[in-house]
Design brief:
- The chain is mostly helical.
- It has one domain.
- It is built from six helices and two strands; from the N terminus they run αααββααα.
- The chain has a two-stranded antiparallel ribbon.
- The longest helix has 21 residues.
- The chain is globular, with a radius of gyration of 16 Å.
- The relative contact order is 0.13.
Length: 124
């Protein structure tokens, strides 16, 4: 049975080690990350972000991921949308495609940080 392209990418990502990533790639990823975080903090006070945050905060749910700047915890899918909206709210990021991935990447990146701080998410 042939593996789907999604399966192949997932297996590659799971086996990838930081040491295997070239320095220039690490530098570009850091640049995108810093730019995205800066744009998120710029969009932090926008009306749209706060409306969506209020809606999702009112809905409650499992506290799986953190909203940048606010510190609120909410279900990962909701936090991903709000964080992504913060990045795009003012449309200041100078590139398009990688910033659209920021929300999902930020959620996925949160787990190792919590683990390093000895604060694993509920259920882990």
């Amino acid at each position: 049975m042939n593996k789907s392209i999604a399966r192949q990418i997932a297996e590659f990502a799971l086996q990838l080690k930081y040491e295997d990533v070239p320095d220039n790639v690490v530098g570009e990823v850091k640049r995108y990350l810093y730019d995205s975080v800066g744009c998120a903090y710029g969009g932090y006070h926008t009306r749209d972000v706060n409306i969506l945050r209020d809606i999702y905060t009112g809905m409650g749910g499992k506290e799986e991921a953190t909203l940048l700047g606010f510190g609120d915890k909410m279900p990962a899918v909701n936090a991903t949308l709000v964080n992504s909206l913060m990045v795009r709210a003012l449309d200041f990021n100078g590139w398009v495609a990688p910033s659209n991935l920021f929300g999902g990447v930020s959620f996925r990146a949160e787990f190792p940080f919590q683990t390093a701080l000895k604060q694993p998410p509920d259920g882990v």
